[in-house]
Write a structure and sequence with these properties.
The chain is mainly alpha-helical. It has one domain: Interleukin-34 (Growth Hormone, Chain: A, Up-down Bundle). It has 10 helices and 2 strands, in the order αααβαααααβαα. The protein has helices at 2-19, 32-42, 45-49, 69-78, 84-104, 113-132, 136-139, 145-154, 171-185, 206-212, and strands at 59-62, 166-169. A two-stranded antiparallel ribbon has the order 1-2. The longest helix is centred in the middle third of the chain and has 21 residues, at 84-104. The radius of gyration is 20 Å and the shape is globular. Bound molecules: 2-acetamido-2-deoxy-beta-D-glucopyranose. 2-acetamido-2-deoxy-beta-D-glucopyranose (NAG) is lined by residues 36, 39, 43, 190-191, 194. Residues 36, 39, 43, 190-191, 194 line the site of 2-acetamido-2-deoxy-beta-D-glucopyranose. This is Interleukin 34. One of its GO terms (cellular component) is extracellular space. InterPro entries: IL-34, IL-34_sf. Residues 1-24 form the signal peptide.
Amino acid sequence: MVQLSTSVYLLGGLLGLLLSPVRVAPTSASMCTPLKTLNDSLSHRRRYMKHNFPIDYTIRVHQKEVFKLSNINRMRLQVEGLDELILQRLWFQVNQGVLKKIIRVMPERHPSRPYATELERRFRDVEGVFVQSHPAELLQQELPETIQETWDHLTEESDRVPESSWRLASPKSLLDNFCHTMHCLFSECFASTEAQQDCKYNRGNPQVTLGRL
Ligand SMILES: *[C@@H]1O[C@H](CO)[C@@H](O)[C@H](O)[C@H]1NC(C)=O
């Protein structure tokens, strides 16, 4: 009897441990400065990425490059205890490709080209600080299987990508996704009103996620 209650007690303790919110390392404060600079650039996206393009203009991107809040939320549900850092790495990988594709379609003298190249430069600045502020082994940690699959698709040579994996998206919509997911994944640097509604039940807190299942 004593033994039983002891194991119940232990089990209870273990469950408590499993259910307690996972502590997520806060975005290092040093990232907030370059992120806010990038955010400033992104606030002009309508002007440069919509008005200077023909109506309904789209570019071809990989389906995994259409990376929205819903994709992030799905991954969080699929992979238990998914580390924010992994999603942040994925965000960099996705948007590096997105920016490259946007810039590639713009002729040298396109009126929005200086804007796009500055955006890319600011993105690189954020990435530089990101890499510097985390130990290398943390940035190289193995990815969960489903995330690795996405990653492999993103880094595929474009002539190997099957036709069915391409999507057409407007430059503005791609930058909208870029911006919203940034507010979500680096929420410590942005006021909570910016971190989109759909992103509010996250922060790697399994209790909240479980409550939604
Ligand atoms: C981010 O940009 C938006 C405009 O798109 C602005 O309202 C907001 O204050 C900016 N946030 C920060 C933290 O700089």
